[in-house]
Amino acid sequence: MFNHARRALGLAGFAIAASAGTSALAYDLKPIVIQLAPSGARAAQTAVITNTHDVPIAIEVKAFQRAQKPDGSDTLTADDENIIVSPPQMVIPPKSSQSFRVQWVGDTAPTTELAFRIVTEQLPIQFKEQVRSDLTADVTMRYRYEAALYVMPENRQAKATLAGVAAVKNAAGEDELELRIKSEGTSRAILDRPVLELSADGTPHRLEGEAVKSLAGLNILPGVERVVRIAMPADLKGHALSGKLTTQYITLN
């Protein structure tokens, strides 16, 4: 379970370098998962950016609504009405840290958990000029770091169901099972120790552990249907398939 939780956290926040040339990150953002209540003292939280460079960096912070696609990627829509970020821009000295505050000012009684991204983006900085033979290049790095933010109503509950299963072929012509898994609860469903109980023309088959490892740690936002493929067991080929999903859920406190 620990590895699955770590995987879920790892997918929640990530950094993107917009130029190659160094493996070191320009800054660090903590936490990578922010969980807010819709009202009261817990409707706000502080995050911290640490500048790991030897030069000052300029950072801009924005909030985005998050719509999850079937493949797990996100469509982001800027939102400066429901979430206030303060300060939204900052300059951080070398080897120093700067905090910023994220506050929910939207619906105080949402019926389901709401998902957002907090995007921190470093404005371009110039490291140095690199001279190679008769060429001079300005090496500029730009980084973007994203954290997940959730607004969590009380009495929320995760629930995921198997909406469909079908035999398909991948690009290499290999047989796979395509699973449609829907989050029907009022909270994100992060699957833990999932089990597929399938029927192949009436014959029961149970898939768990290594056979469904791509489902472990899968994060599905409320109301979203994810599409995931796994390897096709040989004894399921050529049969009419149906089934159900049983799973526990990872809760991030």
Structural overview:
This protein is mainly beta. It folds into 2 domains: 12-151, Immunoglobulin-like, CATH 2.60.40; 160-249, Immunoglobulin-like (Sandwich), CATH 2.60.40. It is 4% helix and 56% strand. The chain contains 1 helix and 20 strands. Strands 1, 3, 5, 6, 8, 10 and 13 form a 7-stranded mixed β-sheet that branches. Strands 2-4-9-7 form a 4-stranded antiparallel β-sheet, with no helix packed on it. Strands 16, 17, 18 and 20 form a 4-stranded antiparallel β-sheet that branches. The radius of gyration is 22 Å and the shape is elongated.
List the helices and strands and how they pair.
Blueprint: H1 2-12, E1 14-17, E2 27-30, E3 33-36, E4 44-51, E5 57-68, E6 74-78, E7 83-86, E8 89-92, E9 97-104, E10 114-122, E11 125-132, E12 135-141, E13 143-151, E14 160-169, E15 175-183, E16 189-200, E17 203-208, E18 219-220, E19 225-231, E20 241-249
Parallel strand pairs: 3-13
Antiparallel strand pairs: 1-13, 2-4, 4-9, 5-6, 5-8, 5-10, 7-9, 10-13, 11-12, 14-15, 15-19, 16-17, 16-18, 16-20
What descriptors fit this protein?
253 residues; mainly beta; Immunoglobulin-like; 2 domains; seven-stranded mixed beta sheet; four-stranded antiparallel beta sheet; 4% helix; elongated
Shape: elongated
How many domains? The number is 2
Instruction: Calculate the mean pLDDT score and round it.
Output: 88
What letter string, H or E per element, gives the SSE order? HEEEEEEEEEEEEEEEEEEEE
In the CATH scheme, the class of the largest domain would be: Mainly Beta
